[in-house]
User: Fold these one by one.
Assistant:
Number 1:
Amino acid sequence: MVGCRRLSPRIDAHVHFWRYSAAEYGWIDDSLAALRRDFMPSHAAAELAAVDMAGLVAVQARQTLDETAWLLELAADSKLIGGVVGWVELTNPRVADQLDRFGAKLCGVRHIVQAEPDDQFLSRADFNRGVDALKTRELAYDILIFPRHLPAAIAFVDRHPAQRFVLDHLAKPPIREQLLEPWCGQLVELARRPNVWLKLSGLVTEADPQRVTAAALRPYLELALEAFGPRRTLFGSDYPVCTAVASYRDVYRFIADFVATLSEAEQTAIFGGNAAEFYRLDERLGS
């Protein structure tokens, strides 16, 4: 069995891979021009090794079944990839067949809700039926949204109390504008749902590129960690997207310095233990 491997406690819970083409990655605009090249496990390996990361979770970047299959092929060939969060057509009545095509190789699913023109996409009946298919297969779901979607996300999560969710990138708070509300209050409300976890990921690209500092990120990190607690919080680099504005080591250091006052056990959980538990990496290997 491949795709979800036993890992040491140190896991980066959010990494992307791609073979770049302008047609398939139109979201990589001029502001992200540094990302217009291939990013493969061999590129990530040195970055993770430099901060003593033993493995990663690969997350989809395109909404195609072919990409999901490709990520799983990478996982089969790379000891670095502990799990894959792929994409399936959750609105398709035959989504169960798509999921069963991948079987236990898949650890989770993500849909790029932030790109949907309908801000109420999360309330669609067909989409929610697709999410129901995840629970029976013990698959997690990554929530990718903007702050304006948080009220809809709360209602969405309430429809699935037995489903495991993780919020990517803190819902992309308005760091450039240095605003906290209404993002903060809505994040706190979402955190009251015990089946929702949080990734400390994707923040550097939400900050002013000229002011990507620990001080700029700290208010958002503090509020998020207070809301979810270290028991439901995962580290994710958002590599290679993060490298458009900061190095991998800087992203890691921002989070490592921030959690340095926590207990050793809490830091270990954030930097891998929680990812292994949330995505059930060991269980999916039958160990």
Note: The mean pLDDT is 94.
Number 2:
Amino acid sequence: MSKKVMVFALVCCLMSAFVVSAPVAAQEPRPLIIDTDMTSDDFMAMLYIFNNPAFAVKAITVTGTGFSYCDAGVEAALGLLALADYGDVPVSCWKDTPLMGGENPVPPDWRTSLETVKALGLPAGGKAVDVDAVQLFTDTVTAADSAIEVLALGPLTNIAEAFNKTPVLVEKIKRITIMGGAVDVAGSSVTDDNTSAEWNIFCDPPAARIVFESGAPITLVGLDATDDAPVTPAFVDRLKADQKTPEAKLVAMLLNNSAESISSGGYFFWDPLAAVVLANPDIVTLQERDVTVIDVPGAEYGRTKPVGNGSRISVASKPDSAALETSLIDAWNAGA
């Protein structure tokens, strides 16, 4: 081999080594708004997001239309931010009633109250911002440097009102991941006559229809997926043996409070699954479907119904439960 060839080969090797070892630029966290009705599974989903460096939460908009009162939901959100030492995130609520008025359909004793939140012993958080949740959502989307994602964990009242008031917001929404609905499976039996609707949609069907038909890209993580992701006593035992952080300890306490429901097979990873799907869509099977929301009162009120002329959305099913459980426990214990 000639000297020139040897030198050339050496240079190539050095260049190859440099390319292989050159550091990869860190990816910027994905900007995110969490819209939530603040009950126990919402807490679990939010703590997963707070401990996931892939996301930068820009706002938390609480909806009082679902399983929490506005004041309690805001206090809980601020306490969770403090628990996770997440930093200053604006939090606000709008109202406790559906978009078009009327009563909240959730039984009062099912809803998160201030007494419930205080019993959790969360650290003191900051204060809610002065604007309501609709304005906070609007301001956050408008101020974003790029398209922003939304994780919707409750009724869609806030988002629908924001889209009603400022339709151009849809153009800056990268995707809305929604926990809600039941497309090909039975619903939550929200009333004796209505067995097709799921609670998050049933609490405000007109709002859900507005969001579904807004044109924003939507991933629906409904009962089609969560019915196959139960929280089991074995998972609770696994978490009890592996709770290294305040976040993991709080989740373990929340699950312990739901021990009866878990042992009877009635408690599922509803909102936590939606959060993990947002981070890793491959954990479920996603299928494009035409779906509409029935917003006319009757036996199917609030049903997310597959129809030929419905909104085109991605519907999740067939979750990888083992991967889900590991993802959650790892995130809740992150930084330990």
Note: Residues 68 and 135 are 20 Å apart (CA to CA).
